[in-house]
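A reminder from the course coordinator: this example appears on the midterm review sheet, so study it carefully.

Given structure:
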């Protein structure tokens, strides 16, 4: 589920504000004030202090504030991938890689953009962005891991802060430009910021996220260390570079965003291959879980379920033509992924019988695999067996509480069974464990409305809009919740504090 903000109108007003030195001075002040983003009611506003040239790099606290401000504006400006299975897979992989990286602060924020193009990026403060299209091009989990490890290296080596220091040494204008997108995003709640952000997803911090060649080489080197430490082949990086370079022919005259910010040449691929020879790493291999996620991303990117069915029928025939006793061969794994893709395509096309028959061999082979079980339950639910689906999901939820995919599917089945209060409890628990997931707050608000919890609906809507950087709508829903919570002192106090924080942010933006 995605939610777009209304079309925005920018032009000479933004241009004039950015070229005026007077405005740049105010912008610097506003940026430093405005990046103190509200996260929890108990948090106070912390103003980043970039300091003078002798102060060294920005503090981790300042980087976090910048990253959170950017993330709020970014969420409100792009389509985000809301598939819980894909998101949770990427999140688990990212955190696993982070545990082997040089990062001191392992608290990360993943944002998955629903886009078929190749892109991944790192933003100060622990934000890692990935386009769902990257899954379509990375042929192995190791290749995908090489990209994530590279981005983690940009964070661990603090390349943004080092770029800030260089910019400060060059000119005030350059540094102000780095923060312009963030300041305008907060000031205009995404309107003026669209000109800075949407033109290129990773360019919200302007061209300064295009790290220098020195930073790229360092990220390549440190990223490979992380990759190998996590158990992947060192050759995965060069293989992924090659895939990206080959993809250029599919883009015509338009270079993929990732290749604009991370230029790839034959010499860089050669360097990666030479560096890989220094490691005694395992050979590259296929991972079934990755192939299933890659298959799922392919289906979600298609506009026609019929086309997906045709594609996976062809794939299944191709890889099943020479059956092997060894179920771990490449063809056997591709065949299993193709069967899963075909079952998903049938389910999405509401061909319940075909979906069930296609999935049956996979359930028999690996009975407890959650990916297969959730699809089987979705088939039950879609074909009218909603009570059976509910019971199965409740059992899964009791075994793995607050699992993102299970909880979301359970809440939807509960709603279809006319049990909005139960669905609200499931989503409330999930929101507490994943407070930065905007889609959870959206689903929770809808469910609270059906359950008759109007106060809760407005609080959840406020959280949703706050995560997307729309302070006007967040404030509106907080006020409505406050009007309904006059007899609840504790809730009223929390809401008042949130309204106060938003007011302070708005006052700071008047400096512009």
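Designed residues:
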């Amino acid at each position: 589920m995605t939610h777009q903000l209304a079309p925005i109108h920018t032009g000479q007003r933004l241009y004039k504000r950015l070229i005026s030195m007077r405005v740049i001075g105010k912008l610097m002040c506003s940026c430093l004030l405005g990046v103190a983003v509200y996260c929890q009611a108990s948090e106070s506003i912390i103003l980043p202090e970039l300091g003078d040239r002798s102060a060294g790099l920005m503090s981790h606290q300042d980087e976090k504030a910048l990253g959170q401000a950017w993330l709020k504006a970014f969420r409100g400006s792009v389509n985000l991938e809301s598939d819980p299975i894909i998101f949770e897979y990427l999140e688990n992989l990212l955190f696993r890689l982070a545990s082997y990286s040089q990062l001191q602060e392992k608290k990360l924020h993943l944002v998955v953009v629903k886009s078929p193009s190749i892109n991944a990026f790192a933003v100060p403060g622990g934000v890692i962005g990935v386009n769902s299209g990257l899954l379509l091009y990375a042929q192995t989990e190791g290749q995908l891991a090489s990209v994530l490890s590279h981005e983690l290296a940009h964070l661990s080596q603090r390349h943004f802060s080092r770029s800030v220091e260089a910019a400060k040494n060059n000119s005030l204008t350059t540094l102000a430009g780095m923060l312009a997108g963030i300041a305008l995003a907060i000031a205009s709640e995404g309107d003026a910021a669209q000109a800075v952000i949407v033109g290129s997803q990773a360019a919200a911090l302007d061209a300064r996220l295009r790290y220098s060649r020195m930073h790229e080489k360092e990220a390549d080197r440190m990223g490979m260390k992380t990759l190998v430490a996590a158990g992947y082949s060192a050759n995965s990086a060069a293989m992924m570079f090659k895939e990206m370079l080959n993809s250029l022919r599919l883009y015509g005259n338009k270079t993929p965003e990732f290749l604009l910010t991370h230029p790839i040449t034959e010499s860089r691929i050669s360097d990666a291959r030479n560096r890989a020879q220094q490691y005694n790493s395992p050979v590259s291999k296929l991972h079934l879980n990755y192939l299933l996620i890659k298959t799922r991303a392919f289906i979600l990117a298609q506009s026609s379920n019929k086309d997906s069915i045709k594609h996976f029928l062809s794939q299944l025939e191709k890889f099943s033509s020479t059956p092997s006793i060894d179920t771990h061969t490449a063809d056997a794994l591709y065949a299993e992924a193709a069967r899963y893709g075909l079952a998903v395509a049938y389910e999405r096309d509401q061909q319940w019988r075909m979906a069930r028959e296609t999935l049956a061999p996979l359930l028999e082979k690996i009975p407890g695999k959650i990916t297969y079980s959730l699809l089987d339950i979705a088939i039950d639910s879609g074909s009218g067996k909603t009570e059976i689906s509910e019971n199965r999901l409740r059992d899964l939820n009791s075994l793995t509480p607050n699992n993102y995919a299970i909880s979301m599917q359970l809440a939807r089945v509960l709603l279809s069974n006319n049990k909005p209060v139960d669905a609200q409890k499931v989503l409330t628990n999930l929101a507490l464990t994943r407070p930065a997931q905007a889609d959870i707050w959206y689903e929770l608000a809808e469910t609270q409305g059906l359950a008759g919890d109007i106060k809760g609906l407005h609080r959840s809507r406020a959280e949703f809009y706050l995560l997307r950087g729309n302070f006007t709508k967040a404030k509106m829903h907080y006020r409505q919740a406050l009007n309904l919570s006059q007899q609840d002192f504790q809730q009223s106090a929390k809401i008042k504090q949130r309204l106060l924080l938003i007011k302070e942010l708005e006052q700071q933006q008047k400096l512009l």
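Residues 397 and 406 are 6 Å apart (CA to CA). Strands lie at 109-113, 120-123, 127-131.
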